[in-house]
Amino acid sequence: MSGAVTRTVVANAPTVRVAVVIDFGPSARMSPRIVIKCPKVPAGTNGATVLASVADSFHVPAPTYAASGLLCSIDGYPSTGCGTLTSAGYAYWSYWHGGRHWSYANVGPAEWTVTNDDVEGWRFEDHGAANPSDAAPALPSDFETVCADAATSPAPTPTSGPPGGSTTLLIGVALLVIVLGGGAGIRWRRQQRT
Fold it and tell me: Taking Cα atoms as reference points, which of 54, 49, 43 lies closest to residue 4?
């Protein structure tokens, strides 16, 4: 994949609703750390196009990809490196499918066609193993829970504390930054925290 995602929209085409969870990871010093959107997309859309449409709906930079098709960045994060192997592990965006539980994707998003009520998950792993043992997105994995009560979710608030804080803090932050609906909700503006 070259970094550009081709979109073909047919007028009056059937649509499917998909939940998208983007988790920038516990060591990302930004707010919001987790972004959620439940868009309607044309039936037959692949996961890469869904991710690009979410970025487009929030007016943030499009996802970037390496020539191999590996996802390099979402909203420009990380700003450098793409699938970098470090002494601490592999830094990359892991790709997940929801349902009763998160399942590590065994094919890339360009090869995956979404269906109604699918949950697409992305989590940045800064010290990952590049396999299913890596941490899944830090939210529930089922469509109804991810997309429930979006309109009443409070606006995101800045958080503080060390990276990898408590689970309670992560769940609290996740609940505060839920962003859902076809254009309704909170605008995704990622801000670096200091």
Answer: 49
**Does any domain span residue 7?**
no
Q: How confident is the model at residue 11 (pLDDT cuts 50, 70, 90)?
A: low
Strands 118-128, 15-23: pairing is: parallel
Is residue 41 within a helix (H) or strand (E), and if so which, with residue range?
A: strand 40-42
Please tell me the distance from the alpha carbon of residue 139 to that of residue 191, in angstroms, as a whole number. 21
DSSP class of residue 109 equals G
The CATH number of the domain where 33 resides is what?
A: 2.170.130.30
Q: State the residue range of the domain holding 120.
A: 15-189
Element (H, E) at 127: strand 118-128
Encode pLDDT of 123-168 as tens digits: 999 889 999 999 999 999 999 999 983 433 443 333 333 333 333 3
Instruction: Say if pTM beats, i.e. exceeds, 0.85.
Output: no
Residue among 65, 48, 136, 129 at smallest CA distance from 91: 129
Residues of 112-131 as b/e, b for ≥16 C-beta within 10 angstroms? Answer: bebeebbbbbbbbbbebeee
Q: How many structural domains does the chain have?
A: 1
- The pLDDT tens digits for 30-51 are 778 899 999 999 999 999 999 9
Q: Extract the tokens encoding 73.
A: 């960045």
> Is 172 within a domain?
yes
For residues 30 and 28, give the distance between their C-alpha atoms in angstroms, rounded to a whole number.
Answer: 6
